[in-house]
Amino acid sequence: MMKEVKSQMKVGVAIEVLWRNYAKEISFVLPKLAPDLVRSVEVIEGDGGLGTVYLIDLGSEKSSLGYQKEKVTVFNESLHQIGMQVIEGGHLNHGFTSYTTVIQFNAVGESETGVDVKVLYETEAEETRMPEETAKAILAFIKRLEDYLLKQGS
């Protein structure tokens, strides 16, 4: 049975700027802004849109996940929505049979964006904190991205 965890936040960056830097530049900005979590991101198939497959090296001291391949399963530019499903390694090596994150950006004003994160997963384990930790990590990364973008604009 599919389970889900939801989380949200608001950032002080315009939706188009946040969307471009998250959805289209993720392979560059993720290792740059979160080197403590991600060593590298490599595009192994696709152009960044729907169907793109990323190889993510989670080789930090804090991670027991190692690496994972993620496929973009949702990419809706007009709705500012992106979803990525783990297709190999990472969470699938820790008892999950399915693990997908979906991020929705919503304009709140000219220079603010609401961020909704949903982690959809299936697991045989009764209790696990990994989906909550994933949602927190995504929001923490978006906070770092916000800080970076605001510094670039000043």
TrEMBL record:
Which Gene3D superfamilies does UniProt cross-reference here?
3.30.530.20
Which family does the entry's similarity section mention? Answer: Belongs to the BetVI family.
Query: Tell me, what's a Pfam family for it?
Result: Bet_v_1
Q: Which SUPFAM superfamilies match?
A: Bet v1-like
Domain Bet v I/Major latex protein intervals? 27-151
Q: Which domain of life is it from?
A: Eukaryota
What protein name is recorded for this chain? Phytohormone-binding protein-like
Which residues lie in coiled coils?
A: none
